[in-house]
Amino acid sequence: MANYYFHPTADQGTGSGDSAINAKAFTNSALATAEGAISSGDTIFFDTSATYAVGGSLDFCSAETSKVINYKTTDGLKAKFTCTGCDFGNTSLVSALNYENIDVSASATVDPIDLYQLTSEATRLQTFNGCLFDAVYFFQESGSTGCPRANFTGCIFTQNSNKYFFEHRNGSNVAADCVFTNCTITNPGGVGGYRTIIFRKVNCTLQNCIILDTTNSYTTMGVDSTITISPFNSFLQADGTSLSSDANNLAVDPQFVDSANGDYRLRPASPCINAGTAS
User: Fold this and answer.
1) Residue 13: CB atoms within 10 Å
2) In a 3-state reduction of DSSP, which class is residue 122?
């Protein structure tokens, strides 16, 4: 089978084929059917004409698969999903999943965005490009051993309000393995009197990233984590102090266009423009 197409609200066709005019109305069960029907390396496309309003949890690749599956939009714009929670992959995942221009707004206050994977093998890497995650919490979970691996490029993480922003939980002592490139993390504010810890049990590399905490001045970059800071990043707390003593941290206000309304583009005078590295 070739690629598969989805529309936010109504059937345009059967979903199968290589044309958006065949798009099928989106549901979790329809997505699972598509994932089971396509061949490894094929793509599931999403029409961007309206928001995908999912009544409950949104599940990408909820069943075990050995296929490489790509999730993209038909026109390179954003496919916007609203849901209570969102699961990417599953604890039996044995393949690579690639997401591009997927925006998820999850309303749940417990485990709103979950990233699942079986082990840390390179073939089981999940990649996210140009995605946005609007939720109070983000965590990874794997099988009983090993750890999940994920690469995030050009992604935005907003409205975090849990003790941890990004946590690996699976009952083992192995830390998750992640790379963040050209990503933005905003307002990782702790709750219940807790300080915010950005990463817990996550071994990660940060390059050309922005972390801006406008809610408190007692944020910790990580616990039980190995964090590699590659030139150059900007990590800043609400009181104007740096989140990191690393020499590669610029610690400047990135000057977003309108972060209050979700516009995280940089203003023309932003000190972060051309301050990173292309390598």
Assistant:
1) 14
2) helix
Digit-coded pLDDT (tens) for 202-230: 888 999 999 887 776 677 888 888 888 88
For 125, residues 6+ apart whose C-beta sits below 8 A from its C-beta are 96, 149, 150, 151
Place of tokens 């709103």: 112
Residue type, 3: N
| Paired tokens of 66 | 């050995």
DSSP state of 34: H
Distance in angstroms (rounded) separating the CA atoms of residues 222 and 33: 39
Question: d(Cα 76, Cα 100) in Å, to the nearest integer?
Answer: 8
Cα–Cα distance measured from residue 145 to residue 123, given in angstroms and rounded to the nearest whole number: 16
Backbone angles phi, psi at 114, to 5 degrees: -120, 135
Return the structure tokens found at 49: 């004409």
Give the integer Cα–Cα distance in Å for 48 and 85.
Answer: 20
Structure tokens at 157: 């993480």
Burial of 200 (0-12, 13-18, 19+ CB in 10 A): buried
d(CA 15, CA 29): 13
In this prediction the pTM is 0.91
Distance CA 87, CA 138 (A): 10
